From TrEMBL:
The lineage of its organism: Bacteria, Bacillati, Bacillota, Clostridia, Lachnospirales. Gene3D superfamilies: Hexapeptide repeat proteins. InterPro entries: Hexapep, Hexapep_transf_CS, Trans_hexapeptide_repeat, Trimer_LpxA-like_sf. Keywords: Acyltransferase, Antibiotic resistance, Repeat, Transferase. SUPFAM superfamilies: Trimeric LpxA-like enzymes. Coiled coil: none annotated. This is Virginiamycin A acetyltransferase. It comes from Natranaerovirga pectinivora. One of its GO terms (biological process) is response to antibiotic. Belongs to the transferase hexapeptide repeat family. GO terms for molecular function: acyltransferase activity.
Amino acid sequence: MPGPDKKKLYPNENIRTVCFISNLPKRPNVEIGDYTYYSDNKKSPERFYENIEHHYEFLGDKLIIGKFCAIAEGIKFVMNGANHKMDGITTYPFNIFGGGWEKVTPTVEDLPFKGDTVIGNDVWIGQNVTIMPGIKVGDGAIIAANSTVVKNIEPYSIYGGNPAKFIKKRFDDEKIAFLLKIQWWDWDESRIFDNLELLVSGDGLEQLMS
């Protein structure tokens, strides 16, 4: 079968700063698609899960990442466990310190819950990006380095900044609709191999649409 072995943690043994993170030991409430990689030049990419913060199984929120995503070092996924109760005078979490303060422990229902964090397919996330709870990032999107994502990102759009804001669409609406329809990331490996030149070419999209 053409292409790298999607079941290997390090698909290229000569580049051990990059790994296919779907091959890490499974973790509850985390789903990662084939060929999605994490790159980290400062520490082992095997420590990817350390970048998922405040993720408590009892809350039930999921981190879902699609196929063929490129994720750079410094990524932070802030999950729903980071949220504080916000409808009182103070947001201070007295209950976690004991000494009788636990009498005001909130229920799960009292806490803000933003739902699952979902990253689409073929998403490129630059260095030192923070993604807040419940964010949805569409297929083909790009998030610039050092961005903090606080709202959903549309497919095939580029966002950057703190807070991350829309910069531009990668393609016009007709081309985006076409890409979302063909979903190349779901093609079998042989078809992807046969179309590699088109997938990476500047005029490949026009050729596929013709």
